[in-house]
Amino acid sequence: MSRLLFWSSLFVVFYAYAGYPLLLLLLSRLRRIGVHRGDLKPFVSVVIAVFNEEERIKDRLENLFHQNYPKEKLEIIVVSDGSTDRTCERVKSFADSRVRLLDLGSQQGKALALNAGVAAARGEIVVFADARQRFERGAVTRLVSNFGDPKVGCVSGELLFMNDDTSLIQTEMGAYWNYEKWIRKMESGTGSAVGATGAIYAIRRDLYRPLPPNTILDDVLTPLMIVAQGYRCIFDGSAMASDIISKNANQEWRRKVRTLAGNWQLFSLHPELLSPWKNALWLRFLSHKVMRLIAPFAIATTLLSGLLIASGLYLGVSAAVALLIISAAIGALFPATRAARLINVSFFFMAMNAAALGGFWFWITGDCNNLWHRTHERSESHNIRYTH
Predict the structure, then answer these.
(1) pLDDT higher than threshold 60 for residue 311
(2) Same domain flag for 214 and 67
(3) Contact between 354 and 343 (Cβ < 8 Å)
(4) CA angle 261-118-85, nearest 5°?
(5) Overall domain count for the chain
(6) Range of the domain at 214
(7) Residue bearing the bigger pLDDT, 192 or 374
(8) Taking Cα atoms as reference points, which of 348, 347, 354 lies closest to residue 295?
């Protein structure tokens, strides 16, 4: 039994981080599915759900005004989810007919705010955006061009993190995000991606299905619901938005815990996602999302089962896992030691896996009902530079 647990758990860890990417790489060599883009100019609705964004909303709207999409075919719907600051006042100050404000009055949560925004949208295509990020000038045009392919129902853009000299984890975050984007590109090129980039994605409005209250990951659930209707979710790296990178591991930890809690939440919102007969992307969903959720449990099982067997290879693997955990613990207890690459990589890797446990706890205790989670960083800084 110990050997079965050892090899099963080791397989989970390997497959979650290396096996699935290798499988996608092989599949991409055997089958590539293109996208028939077109020079389309349908009416587009950009939906932004906000809560207390008085400091950012002006810059965000001005950024969208500078899109190279025809002005007469673009509207921007700002849904204020019970904001108590001057967000609504700032939106109303724009003397531009393209801007529409929906004030929900009381706080209902981002999911219901998005539902209200899409219900009010007049566009054939709906683009989802957040208040913090910025679109590059041709982002909307590039997103929309993909709908020239009748099989495409959802298009994810690319989020570029801006390097910040004050960030302590930009190397690790950059490497992780590039790894994640590579997986999404491989998924897209061989069929459909499992989810989209929440800061920049577009859908055919008539394919939208209202989100359940308190949904955390609209950018995963909405694309999956669209794929379930027989359409593709693709990734277009030419449609770009930019954001500031997390300052430190604690900040990234909080963001990651909530994201992973959202993945756990999907199981209770739509348990059919775990069924290969009901989820068209079942294997990809299992490989990309579920395996990473159970990886920390698998790491612990690998360590303990190897110690129980206590011989040869098993002890060697357990020793390697123990070294990884000890290195991460040293990095956590003594932050100055993270200047050593091995310590920092171990710390970052284990922190991300610990976040999966935190996400599980966040979900199982009901904290997913927390309506909004935002970071308060500003992107204006002289020491920030763009990076892919």
Answers:
(1) yes
(2) yes
(3) no
(4) 70
(5) 2
(6) 44-247
(7) 192
(8) 354
- Identify the band that residue 388 occupies on the pLDDT scale cut at 50, 70 and 90: very low
Distance CA 205, CA 118 (A): 7
- Are 207 and 228 in contact, with CB atoms under 8 Å apart? no
Does residue 110 have a pLDDT over 70? Answer: yes
**Which tokens sit at 56?**
């950012």
Q: At what angle do helices 291-309 and 2-14 cross, to 10 degrees?
A: 140
User: If phi over 0 gives left and psi between -120 and 50 gives alpha, with beta otherwise, what is residue 103?
Assistant: beta
Q: Are residues 299 and 233 in the same domain?
A: no
Q: Which pLDDT belongs to residue 381?
A: 32
For residues 87, 89, 90, 93, the Cα torsion angle rounded to the nearest 10 degrees is 160
What is the greatest pairwise CA distance in the chain? 74
**Which CATH number characterizes residue 48's domain?**
3.90.550.10
Give, rounded to a whole angstrom, the gap between the first and last alpha carbons of the chain. 46
Arithmetic mean of pLDDT over the chain:
88
> In this structure, are 60 and 12 located in the same domain?
no
- Which residues have C-beta within 8 Å of that of residue 378, sequence separation ≥ 6? 55, 56, 244
Whether 351 and 176 have beta carbons less than 8 Å apart is answered as no
Same domain, 71 and 198: yes
Q: Are 91 and 7 in a shared domain?
A: no
Within a domain: residue 382? no
